[in-house]
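ARCHIVE CARD
CATEGORY: sequence design from structure
SOURCE FIELD: tokenized fold
FIELD CONTENT:
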């Protein structure tokens, strides 16, 4: 993604809790776990986003951050106040995530696994053989003391296309790309972190940049969204939600680009192009799902709609899918519907609407 590779977030030493002479750091070094908790609290959101970028799953990121902070607490004596605490925590988090990556394959979206289906597949069953990419609840990324530009970059770095592109890289290349292009670490710092040479870091970075440039769009969603403005973005998302609730296929189609795609992990089949997507919309969400209720949310720095399905308009509606919308201009160019009720609590949503 060109914007990410051409700009950097706050540097490795610029963040609350990064100064080695802080009172909480002294207390933590003396064994005060409450001081350590206060010390790392401002860094949790960015560490969590970083682990998600590496692992492709908020739940895996939860585990990785918890494990990394436990490792950091147990090994805090090894830090001894030298340099930036933030840099050291990213070192621990990186090693934790790379250990997890070694234990399983990459996460994917249906578009990564095969060509689009040319007809509606009604027996489209979930694939349990694939580790699927999951949506990211991005509410914490807009908070905290970071500058507006830094918050913009944080949201850009969790966009669905970018994180999906990262999953095509070996773990060490993912880490190098993120640490250099997103977080602003120097090659020498990363070489020390990974136990390798600066030349190896630069080589891994070049390979990672080439592959991500092939897989991710040149224009980020943040750039598109900034040009549209909040009111227009909300209108598009609300239009999709309203069309779904009213079972108005034509209204939904009017929101889509000609080359729109629609995928539904963990279902392996996906659709590409307005005719195929329109046929799918008429047949499945508008045809087979009796009643919809929706809530507007944000996921991966993008507009999203949480959908609930009920037997009829008066019946309870159960959590069904978080659909992340990818926009181009003022149209929807991609719909990724994550069909798993377990995603809903992380967005602060109930599993059922009465």
């Amino acid at each position: 993604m060109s914007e990410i590779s051409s700009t950097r977030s706050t540097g490795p030493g610029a963040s609350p809790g990064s100064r080695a002479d802080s009172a909480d750091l002294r207390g933590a070094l003396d064994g005060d776990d409450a001081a350590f908790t206060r010390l790392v609290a401002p860094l949790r959101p960015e560490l969590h986003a970083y682990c998600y970028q590496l692992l492709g799953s908020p739940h895996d990121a939860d585990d990785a951050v918890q494990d990394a902070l436990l490792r950091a607490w147990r090994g805090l004596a090894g830090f001894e106040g030298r340099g930036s605490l933030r840099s050291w925590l990213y070192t621990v988090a990186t090693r934790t995530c790379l250990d997890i990556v070694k234990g399983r394959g990459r996460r994917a979206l249906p578009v990564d696994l095969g060509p689009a289906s040319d007809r509606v597949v009604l027996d489209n069953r979930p694939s349990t053989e694939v580790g699927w990419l999951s949506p990211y609840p991005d509410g914490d990324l807009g908070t905290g003391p970071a500058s507006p530009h830094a918050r913009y970059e944080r949201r850009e770095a969790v966009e669905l296309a970018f994180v999906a592109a990262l999953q095509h890289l070996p773990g060490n290349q993912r880490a190098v790309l993120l640490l250099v292009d997103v977080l602003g670490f120097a090659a020498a710092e990363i070489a020390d972190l990974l136990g390798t040479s600066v030349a190896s870091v630069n080589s891994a970075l070049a390979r990672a940049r080439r592959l991500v440039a092939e897989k991710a769009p040149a224009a980020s969603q943040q750039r598109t969204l900034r040009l549209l403005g909040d009111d227009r973005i909300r209108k598009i998302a609300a239009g999709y939600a309203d069309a779904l609730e009213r079972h108005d296929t034509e209204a939904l189609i009017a929101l889509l680009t000609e080359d729109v795609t629609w995928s539904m992990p963990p279902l392996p089949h996906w659709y590409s192009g307005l005719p195929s997507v329109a046929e799918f919309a008429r047949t499945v969400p508008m045809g087979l799902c009796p009643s919809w209720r929706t809530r507007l949310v944000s996921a991966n720095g993008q507009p999203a709609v949480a959908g609930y399905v009920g037997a009829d308009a008066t019946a309870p509606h159960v959590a069904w899918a978080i659909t992340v919308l990818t926009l181009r201009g003022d149209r929807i160019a991609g719909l990724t519907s994550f069909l798993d009720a377990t995603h809903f609590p992380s967005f602060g949503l109930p599993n059922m609407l009465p």
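CARD ANNOTATION: The beta strands are 107-108, 131-132, 256-263, 270-272, 291-299, 302-310, 317-328, 331-338, 352-353. The first strand starts at residue 107 and ends at 108.
SHELF: design records, drawer C
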